[in-house]
Prior knowledge:
With 98 residues, the chain is an alpha+beta fold. It has two domains: 1-41, no CATH class; 43-98, no CATH class. The chain has three helices and four strands; from the N terminus they run αβαβαββ. The protein has helices spanning 2-8, 25-28, 72-77, and strands at 14-18, 35-39, 86-90, 93-97.
Amino acid sequence: MIQWLAQWLPDLELHLVADSAYAGQTISRHLPANVHRYSRMCLNAALYAPAPVRQPGQRGRARKRGDRLLSPQQLIRDRRYRWQWVTVHLYGKQARVQ
C-alpha cells in the first residue's frame, strides 16, 4: 500500500512511522526513494554500510553488505555525534524529544 501511495504522489516525500518490527532491511530496502521510514531500533542492532559496487572482472560472489558500522549504543556514547532536540506532535500534544 505504501508503494502505491508513493507512486500516486511521486513529488511528495512520505514519512512512515512504524514499530520495531519494521526496523530491518526486509521492509526498508523495498520502499521507494520518496518514502522515509522511522522506527524504534534495538541498541545492539548490527548496522552495515551499503555493499560496494562490484568491479568489472571481480571474482567471487558479490557482497551483500558493506563494512560494519557502530551500533546505536556505540553511537549514543560517541561524542563525535551530536543528538538534537526536536519538537514533535505526539498523542495530541507537543513534546520535545531527542
